[in-house]
Amino acid sequence: MTTNLSRLADGKPSSLSYRAGGGPPAAAGARTSGRPARKLRPSWQDSVTDAADLALLGIVAFVAALPILTAGAALATASQAAYDRRHLGSLPSWRTSKQRFVDNLLPGAGATVVTLAAAVFLTIDVRALTLGLVPGGGAAIALTATVILLLAGFGGLVTVAVGRGLGWRAAARSAGTLAWRRPGALVAAAGIGVLAALLAVAVPVTTPIVLACWLHALHAASPSR
In whole angstroms, how far apart are CA 184 and each of 9, 12, 143, 170, 181? Predict the structure, then answer.
């Protein structure tokens, strides 16, 4: 007690003064640490930011894909932006996205041609089956529908791999390996693709937003490796 009184007389804090003041010694150190208190934003602001980023991403990607042959480059660039948004917390700069788009123009054009050729072939096949021009009936139609779903899922996995920085060929190999080892990832990607297609067909004006949400959902559902 005498020691505490002598400390008070010398102007030094004591345990009694801390108890009286209601704060531990660490509080004084915290005030002098020079680190400002971190301000947390309300969750609704984060939601608005996420929605705005997705809308911007989808609209820009949709416009960039309008010339058709640039669709592959636009999709690759958008997937890379979605990856950055999910893992880094923000969209890349315009300069970065522009450079990525330019780098993906030629490889993306090749991927676009292959995708269009496959789509045309499957469309002709389905039409021939539904008109009865090709034997097989309902079983053949069901098999073709299953193939289309699996190809949609495979395309989703390829898109995610491209978004992680792989080239189109390497992304296709990576997607094939993932689909073989983890069929659930393929099924999940197919389901996301079907849902996105249904939403885009039901409300065509929302297609750019649906595109961005499709990319976001693919990256969220795909395994990290």
Answer: 74, 67, 19, 21, 9
